[in-house]
Amino acid sequence: MKFFITDFSLACVPDGTLEALLEPLDLATSVSQADAIILPLVWRHDFDLNDELLDSVIGHKKPVVVLDYLEHHNIQNCILMGNTFHEHTMGTHYRLMHEMLREADVRLYFKRELPVADWPEHVKPCDFPHGLPDIEPVSEADYHARAVDLFMAWGYSHVCRP
Question: Residue 65: what pLDDT?
Fold first, then answer.
């Protein structure tokens, strides 16, 4: 199966956090060559919609998988492109994408920090998927003999999030 990855922006700059995850996929260089489209959504203040590319996906009737990392502050402001939208937080180009995605064949929609609610069946929670290399296990003695022991905590998330 071939995948075309796009954020539907004119700049078409893919989100760097997905590179390792998407690297093993068989990638297409155009919508017409692809069996499915992967849409990573991240906030970009300078987002400028490539509506011809989005029209091409809808016209070719390609299935779409959305990886949505857009943040929200509570369930009333949870944004699902093609489902729920709040223009005061997003802007015109994102609204156009939202309207066009209503016509697209969105098969799976992975949402970061998805609040508990009655969502459509194809909407699933997914917080920062990533790919890690295989690691050979070591003995307990070797583990404790490491030169550096590191603990990293990201800290607390916003209190309004689930």
Answer: 92
The span from the CA of 104 to the CA of 61, in Å, is 7
Residue 84 pLDDT greater than 80, yes or no: no
Q: Which of 52-66, 67-81, 118-132 has the lowest mean pLDDT?
A: 67-81
* Residue-wise DSSP of 93-139: HHHHHHHHHTTSEEEEEEETTPPSS---TTEEE--------------
Which string of b and e fits 137-148 if b means at least 16 CB within 10 Å?
eeeeeeeeeeee
pLDDT, position 69: 82
Q: How many CB atoms lie within 10 A of CB 54?
A: 23
Beta-carbon contacts of 58 under 8 Å, excluding residues fewer than 6 positions away, are 100, 103, 104
What angle, rounded to 10 degrees, do the helices at 92-101 and 51-59 form?
A: 0
